[in-house]
Design a protein that fits this description.
The chain is of the alpha/beta class. The chain has 3 domains: 216 residues, 2-enoyl-CoA Hydratase, Chain A, domain 1 (Alpha-Beta Complex), CATH 3.90.226; 145 residues, no CATH class; 61 residues, OB fold (Dihydrolipoamide Acetyltransferase, E2P). It contains 16 helices and 15 strands. The strands form 3 sheets. Strands 1, 2, 3, 4, 5, 8, 9 and 10 form an 8-stranded mixed β-sheet that branches. Strand 3, helix 4 and strand 4 form a beta-alpha-beta unit. It is elongated. The relative contact order is 0.08.
Length: 474
């Protein structure tokens, strides 16, 4: 585990809580066990960062236990491609064979994960396929995304190699899982004789999946899966999410990320609009801790990514409080903050196996950060306007108007400097402050030495901090 910097008390509490959780004991080896050990975890929700997190923890636990097989109990309509691709990569690189039991649906990203597994088992009435990439509204995205998904599905099917088919005296090598079928689950333009016509995206029922090599058998439950797989004497260890798992899973959800980023930028904006240090800055700091802490604990956010973010905050502060205007320091600070937020959201393991998938993940994180920042800025401007003009909160801002007809005047520093050396008379007693008349105009003034009676002649000797100083003219 990485050594961690003390970011905040909340961060420390999360780390201590995580380190205090009970760990499952690793077994000494398969040779000392009589039963086959199966490690099982569920994917029964939208595939996103929390599911990827559970997958990582499950594979790590299975390796520590020396499990013989990993079993995924799946029922999902799909989810985010970057999370699904990370899970696919982990499955394909696993030394432990991975089974999946599709209990109703394995659509879209779920189909990709299922095809990566060594064996697929399906409940009667289930389906697998329909892996066309769509956006949040269900619309099909441009072909560059479809192209990536087609190649990923095809490569995943090819990863399972070929089988030897013997017909009489002829020997033929055939794919264990036909890559063209996997591609047809994404692209409606793919035609496979006897299976799918053009204009339709391929989805298999349980029987169709068995017929065309995309399912090893039909099962009603986990027990039947084990029977079909030829495993009789077995023990199932199941991943049970802890309270911390649920909290971290909630906090690393992309929607929650967007809300936290909005609070960070909104808090900074409101803090700059108010004197001193108050609630807005506190809200921004808490949001930053909630954003980075779970990412750091999960190994997504590196030390240098945290340093980028906080260095950016420092540069923005320097630009605002120490340097007039907004220049290099301010722009650099904004870029560092955005870079830190974006890169900490991206799992570096994606780049290790697939650079293109890593770039896609960065672009997606950048979209979330920029969109959340823009929404936060617009909401902050709107809310600040409403608050400062609201009758409900009349004391948030000064509403009085100082009119010149009531005696309120602005100070022109240039004019005051030009008055040095001019003479006049004391309009009131100066004790030491009062008023003087110079060239027929009344001015606030201060006696530079002693008291000056009303009507006595005066001369302006200096101007300092918006105040003219006078002496008795001899």
């Amino acid at each position: 585990m990485k050594s961690f910097p003390v970011v905040s008390l909340s961060f420390l509490a999360l780390v201590l809580f995580a380190s205090g959780l009970p760990q499952e004991n690793a077994l000494s080896g398969n040779s000392e066990r009589e039963k086959t050990l199966i490690y099982k975890f569920d994917i029964r929700e939208q595939i996103a960062a929390p599911v990827w997190r559970i997958t990582q923890k499950s594979f790590e636990a299975a390796n520590q236990m020396g499990a013989d097989y990993i079993l995924i109990h799946m029922n999902t309509y799909g989810g985010l491609l970057d999370a699904a691709d990370s899970i696919r990569t982990r499955i394909l690189n696993s030394k432990i064979p991975v089974f999946v039991f599709i209990d109703n649906n394995a659509a879209s990203a779920g189909a990709l994960i299922s095809i990566a597994c060594d064996s697929i088992y399906m409940r009667p009435g289930s389906s697998i396929g329909a892996a066309t990439v769509v956006n949040a509204t269900g619309e099909v995205v441009p072909d560059k995304y479809q192209s990536f998904m087609r190649s990923t599905m095809r490569a995943t099917a090819e990863a399972h190699g070929k089988d030897t088919l013997i017909t009489g005296s002829d020997t033929t090598l055939v794919w264990h899982r036909d890559p063209k079928i996997a591609e047809a689950m994404v692209d409606p333009a793919v035609y496979i004789e006897g299976i799918i016509d053009t204009g339709q995206v391929l989805t298999f029922t349980t029987e169709e999946a068995i017929r065309y090599g995309y399912c090893e058998g039909q099962a009603e439950n986990i027990e039947q899966v084990m029977t079909i797989a030829g495993i009789s004497n077995y023990e199932i260890k199941e991943h049970v999410p802890t309270t911390l798992d649920k909290i971290i899973g909630f906090l690393i959800n992309p929607v929650v990320h967007g809300i936290l980023i909005m609070i960070i930028f909104g808090g900074i904006y409101f803090e700059l609009q108010t004197p001193g240090v108050g609630f807005p800055l506190g809200a921004a700091l808490i949001a930053a801790v909630l954003y980075f802490a779970p990412l750091y604990l999960e190994g997504l956010a590196e030390h240098w990514e945290l340093v980028l973010f906080f260095a950016g905050i420092v540069l923005i502060g320097v630009e605002i409080f120490a340097i007039p205007g907004f220049g290099v320091a301010g722009i650099s600070g904004v870029l560092l903050v955005i870079t830190g937020l974006v890169l900490s959201m991206v799992d570096n393991i994606v780049f290790k196996f697939d650079v293109l998938a890593g770039v896609e993940a960065v672009l997606k994180a950048l979209f979330i950060v920029l969109t959340s920042s823009l929404i936060s800025l617009l909401l902050s401007l709107y809310i600040s306007k409403k608050l400062f003009t609201s009758r409900t909160f009349p004391n948030l801002a000064l509403s009085k108007v100082q009119n010149t007809m009531n005696g309120f005047v602005g100070v022109d520093s240039k004019t005051q400097k030009e008055m040095i050396g001019k003479k006049g008379i004391a309009h009131t007693v100066l004790r030491p402050s009062g008023k003087v008349t110079i060239d027929g105009t009344i001015h606030d003034a201060k006696s530079d030495r002693g008291f000056i009676e009303k009507g006595e002649p005066i001369i302006v000797v200096r101007d300092e901090t918006g105040q003219i100083y006078v002496l008795r003219d001899k």
